[in-house]
Design goal:
TIM Barrel; globular; binds 1,3-dihydroxyacetonephosphate; cytoplasm; EC 5.3.1.1
Length: about 250
């Protein structure tokens, strides 16, 4: 049984005050849900959000981290620091980090190893650009990204990892992959995991879809056979909308 996970990725939005208020608002409304509820937010507010979410089923995650525990990396945040403030999750390899901050499959892999070592649950993002989709390269791109990220990851750790399939052309554009299209790629990604490990392992790993998910399309997406959740940007910024997503 794969427990669905609905996650917000706030990106570089929200102030600390707004973030704390948001958590206070959603807590009572998501209490009864069977899905895992997660908010990923900027570093500066994580400690406050962890505090605000205490005693509830709302989990808190970071949007990135460095792969070293400590050292001369000005401006970076380490897994040790995230663990110290009880962060549950970390997003790794988001397409915006790959596009603007030189994130590569190799650095995603190093970060994945460290997240597992520090017992921070990782969400590994993969997905193709519009050009790649139009060139029929979607599956190839996802395969390379998954194989790169999972390099030397032990079979026992695989079920602790969440994968997010986020086609780049669907992020923040209002264009969603149809739920069938998303499911097809996600089934393919599961098959890549099966090839790297075995079927039992591949059936345990949770794979989310991300890209213009909103209250009006979340149910259809979540009804697909292999989609185990959503990673949501824009529609996660308003408490009402996020609650609707969780209670799809
Ligand atoms: O990048 C995303 C989540 O990580 C998706 O963003 P949108 O939901 O705004 O398209």
């Amino acid at each position: 049984m794969r427990i669905p996970i609905i996650a917000g990725n706030w990106k570089m939005n929200m102030t600390i005050k707004e973030g704390i208020e948001f958590i206070g608002k959603i807590k009572p409304s998501v209490k009864g849900t069977d899905v895992e509820v997660l908010i990923c937010a900027p570093y500066v507010m994580l400690k406050d959000l962890v505090e605000a979410a205490k005693g509830s089923n709302v989990k808190i995650g970071a949007e990135n981290m460095h792969y070293e525990e400590k050292g001369a990396f000005t401006g970076e945040i380490s897994p040790l620091m995230l663990k110290e403030i009880d962060v549950d999750y970390v997003i790794l390899g988001h397409s915006e980090r790959r596009q603007y901050y030189n994130e590569t499959d190799e650095t995603v892999n190093k970060k994945l190893v460290k997240a597992l070592e520090f017992k921070i649950s990782p969400i590994v993002c993969v997905g193709e650009t519009l050009d790649q989709r139009e060139g029929d390269l979607t599956k190839d791109v996802c395969k390379v990204q998954i194989e790169g990220a999972f390099n030397n990851i032990n079979q026992d750790d695989v079920e602790k990892i969440v994968i997010a399939y986020e086609p780049i052309w669907a992020i923040g554009t209002g264009k969603t992959a149809t739920s069938e299209e998303a499911n097809e790629v996600i089934m393919y990604i599961r098959n890549v995991i099966k090839g790297l490990y075995d079927e039992e392992t591949s059936e345990k790993v949770r794979i989310q879809y991300g890209g213009s998910v909103k209250p009006s399309n979340v149910e259809e997406i979540m009804n697909e056979s292999d989609i185990d959740g959503a990673l949501v940007g824009g529609a996660s910024l308003k408490a009402d909308s996020f609650v609707e997503l969780v209670n799809f």
